[in-house]
Design goal:
4 strands; single chain; two-stranded antiparallel sheet; alpha+beta; 85 residues
Length: 85
């Protein structure tokens, strides 16, 4: 298995390979947020959907939850575009 990218969460400062929402910034750079940190800090609909039913899952267990359940798909239109209101 290929090693997963390590990113530092803008919200909590932890550096790990846990699932993150990568957000484009106005200066063209990218910020990484743990999905639970991003949901709490910004009320992001995509992150809210992903963490809603995860229970205590973290790291690889949370990644498996997303891959198996694809909770973010309820935000998609017919073309598969996510509308993160």
């Amino acid at each position: 298995m290929m090693a997963l990218a390590q990113n530092t969460c803008l919200g909590c400062g932890q550096n790990d390979d846990h699932p993150k929402h990568l957000v484009g910034l106005q200066d063209g750079s990218t910020a990484a947020w743990h999905m639970d940190c991003h949901a709490r800090a910004t009320d992001c609909a995509t992150c809210d959907a992903n963490v809603a039913d995860k229970g205590d899952a973290r790291g690889s267990d949370f990644r498996a939850h997303i891959e198996e359940n694809r909770p973010f798909t309820r935000l998609m239109d017919e073309e598969g575009v996510i509308h993160d209101a």
